Amino acid sequence: MLRTGTQERTGERRSLLLCEMNEAMPRIRRGSLADLSAVELLLMSAGLPTDDIRSIPGLLTWVAEADASLRGVIALEPFGHEGLLRSLAVAPNARGHGLGRGLVAQVEGDARTEGVRKLVLLTQTAEMFFRDLGYQTVSRDDVSDAVKRSAQFRSLCPASATCMAKVLHD
Q1: Alpha carbon distance 104, 111 (integer Å)
Q2: Minimum mean pLDDT range among 15-19, 114-118, 159-163
Q3: For 111, which of 39, 60, 67, 116 could close a Cys bridge (C-beta 3.0–4.6 Å)?
Q4: Cβ contacts of residue 36 below 8 Å, gap of 6+?
Q5: Residue 19 located in a structural domain
Q6: Does a structural domain hold residue 8?
């Protein structure tokens, strides 16, 4: 195939643009202990609780990073076949690009792989966001006793927070 000089330059520009986009695209990965301080800062800036984040046994975190900075975080507190989805936060300069949806999708997929069949969450501000992702409002009475014993349910989130759940299908 023959290419004109214009086509070649356009192709080069497209390649450069794709490289720039890939550099700025956040990468979602499992969080580690080394991420905890940055995770806590992002959660605090979003007004989310951090009091118990370092003491939860088995807490799983995922972080989104780009250009060596944390852009988003989400966590899962597993309780057998049920999991408490918590701590979803996206940095203000990274909002509006689907990162929150990407983090939720990553957790749902990984949770499903680990045998979690139902995710539960409490929210004061993101009910519509989660409703768009298939979560439904449920009574706190419909949540397992194990989840009810979590600090999130007992004391960190007010009784006025909306309880939502989603069954994960294979």
Answers
A1: 10
A2: 15-19
A3: 116
A4: 53, 54
A5: no
A6: no
151 lies in some domain: yes
Asked if the structure places residue 3 within a domain, the reply is: no
Helix residue ranges, H only, 25-83? 36-45
Looking at residue 113, its amino acid is T
- Tracing tokens 């929210």 back to the chain, one arrives at 123
Q: Tell which wins on pLDDT, 10 or 88.
A: 88
- The tokens for 152 are 């999130």
Domain count along the chain: 1
Summarised one tens digit per residue, pLDDT across range 104-149 is 999 999 999 999 999 999 998 899 999 999 999 999 999 999 999 8
Supply the range of the domain harboring residue 54.
Answer: 26-167
- Write the CATH number for 112: 3.40.630.30
The answer to whether 71 and 35 are in contact (CB under 8 A) is no
Rounded to two decimals, the pTM is 0.82
118-123 and 82-90 beta bridge pairing:
parallel
Q: Encode pLDDT of 68-79 as tens digits.
A: 889 999 999 999
